[in-house]
Amino acid sequence: EAGVTQFPSHSVIEKGQTVTLRCDPISGHDNLYWYRRVMGKEIKFLLHFVKESKQDESGMPNNRFLAERTGGTYSTLKVQPAELEDSGVYFCASSHLLIGGYEQYFGPGTRLTVT
Amino acid sequence: AQKVTQAQTEISVVEKEDVTLDCVYETRDTTYYLFWYKQPPSGELVFLIRRNSFDEQNEISGRYSWNFQKSTSSFNFTITASQVVDSAVYFCALRVHNTDKLIFGTGTRLQVFP
């Protein structure tokens, strides 16, 4: 079974540009999460989807970030316009709604560098 | 407020040494869950263990063991007879009841030298 995949693995953009990150959860997982780790700091929660609905978006830093999950499958996280402080590693995770308890399975992350 | 502290930023050991990674958590909730994840050089976070707040039994899985102590709000992780493949960043995380989000510590980078 394929794990959580994320694309791209690395993105370098200039301040003011737009970037879209993609996450494909494990097949059948209704829960999808986005987290971010800024250099040297803790991994911080951004938001949580249950299927296509946003369950909790309390961690989204500001309105430059837009997350979508159309059809309840893959998700995208768009940053527009990007700022220097947006640099970091963006992780996606998924879990099954009813099975498996509370383990979240993480992807390898997308390293975003804003110059 | 909830918080996880991993005071050890980096630890270096020589192969076959035992090493303990510390994790201290803060929460006022009585029902919560604690996790450890491993981040190898490939980047993904690999789930290692989950404990709930009502189960203070220590757990052993091969060379890995976990010591959960509510009295000190700690959930420490010990690797016995460390190996080079154990080199990674290890994250401790907390999840409180009725939420799904994980609250992570800053991670501990473990380097095991041959």
3D structure, described in words:
The complex is a heterodimer of chains A (115) and B (114). Chain A has no helices and eleven strands. Chain A is mainly beta. In chain A, the strands form two sheets. In chain A, strands 2, 4, 5, 6, 9, 10 and 11 form a seven-stranded mixed beta sheet that branches. In chain A, strands 1-3-8-7 form a four-stranded antiparallel beta sheet, with no helix packed on it. By secondary structure, chain B is mainly β. Helix content of chain B is 0%, strand content 54%. Chain B has no helices and twelve strands. Chain B has strands spanning 3-5, 10-14, 19-21, 24-26, 32-39, 46-52, 59-61, 64-69, 74-79, 88-96, 103-104, 108-113. In chain B, a hairpin with a 6-residue loop joins strand 5 and strand 6 (46-52). Chain B is globular and about 45 Å long.
Low-confidence stretches of chain A: none
Helix coverage percent of chain A: under 10%
Cα radius of gyration of chain A in angstroms: 13 Å
Strand-and-helix sequence of chain A, N→C?
EEEEEEEEEEE
Average pLDDT figure of chain B: 94
Question: If helices are DSSP runs of H or I spanning 4 or more residues, what is the number of helices of chain A?
Answer: 0
* Biggest sheet architecture of chain A: 7 strands, mixed
Q: Termini of chain B, distance in Å?
A: 41 Å
Judged by helices, strands and strand pairing, the structural class of chain B is mainly beta
Q: What's the multimeric state?
A: heterodimer
Q: Which percent band covers the strand fraction of chain B? A: over 45%
Compute the gyration radius of chain B: what is it?
14 Å
Q: Which structural traits does this protein have?
A:
heterodimer; A: 115 residues; mainly beta; seven-stranded mixed beta sheet; four-stranded antiparallel beta sheet; 49% strand; B: 114 residues; six-stranded mixed beta sheet
